[in-house]
Every structure is written in structure tokens, then in C-alpha cells.
Amino acid sequence: MSLYQNVKNALIDISHVMDTGLSQNGQKIQLVFGKNYSASSML
Question: What's the burial of 31, exposed, middle or buried (CB within 10 Å: 0-12/13-18/19+)?
């Protein structure tokens, strides 16, 4: 159940970052995704 919540939160964060500008901040999306991935793996 917690794994599902982590994936759901990560997808919400990714979609939010994509809304801010996919073509302009491509590298920023990678950095944010990396941070979310490491945070979810720690749990």
C-alpha cells in the first residue's frame, strides 16, 4: 500500500513539473524525478 502511495505521489509530482514547462526545463524534470526516486527508495 505504501509503495502505491509513493508511486502515486511521484506521478503527481512529475505531472506538476511537466505542467510548469516540459520543453524549457527538460533537465529540471530529470533532477526532480531523481530526487523523488531516491526519497521513495529510502522509505
Answer: exposed
Helix, strand, coil percentages, rounded to 5, for the chain: 85, 0, 15
pTM given for the model: 0.35
Give the DSSP letter string of 1-14: -HHHHHHHHHHHHH
Query: 4: alpha, beta or left, given left = phi > 0 and alpha = psi -120 to 50?
Result: alpha
Q: What is the pLDDT of residues 1-43, one digit of tens each?
A: 688 888 888 877 777 666 555 555 455 555 555 555 544 554 4
Rounded to whole angstroms, the Cα distance separating 23 from 8 reads 23
